[in-house]
Amino acid sequence: MLICWDQWYPEAARLTAMQGANVIFYPTAIGWLPEEKPTLGAAQHTAWETVQRGHAVANGCYIAAANRIGTEGETEFWGQSFVANPYGEVVGRAPENEEAILTAEIDLEKLEEFRRIWPFFRDRRIDSYGQIGERWIDDAP
Fold it and tell me: Residue 89: exposed, middle, or buried by beta-carbon count in 10 A (0-12, 13-18, 19+)?
């Protein structure tokens, strides 16, 4: 399980999958501010969903993203919890403005097949990741 802000970082998903996770759960509370929704709302939602679907593909696992609905203060939560399979396909989605219990079938045998066909863990270029633990990389001599 990773929580909310973790969803934006590929390292978190990768490390979780490398520790054996077949499903990564992301409980979150993300939404729009009133002044952002008209111009950025659709793009922000697309970014949120796309990055998590990418984690599913890159790590050969399922992603279950649970998001709030309703409002708190100025934030309007966009709901639309979803489950994505290792191909990044959404296999279940909850409504935008209604509480729901979302279930989706996962197939661990297909997960093994995906990881065999797409050997992302095996083919990683770990020799070139030495600086991944740095906050910034300074190329200055």
Answer: exposed
By three-state DSSP, how is residue 83 classified? Answer: strand
Tell me how crowded residue 54 is: count the other CB atoms within 10 A of its CB.
15
Q: Give the global pTM.
A: 0.90
Give the chain's end-to-end CA distance (angstroms, integer). 40
The number of CA neighbours under 13 Å toward the Cβ of 136 is: 3
Running along the chain, 141 residues long, what does each successive block of 10 average in pLDDT? 93 95 96 93 95 97 96 95 97 95 93 92 90 80 53
What value does the CA radius of gyration of the chain take, rounded to a whole number of Å? 17
What is the C-alpha to C-alpha distance for residues 57 and 21, in angstroms, rounded to an integer? 13
Instruction: Name beta bridge partners: 27.
Output: 66
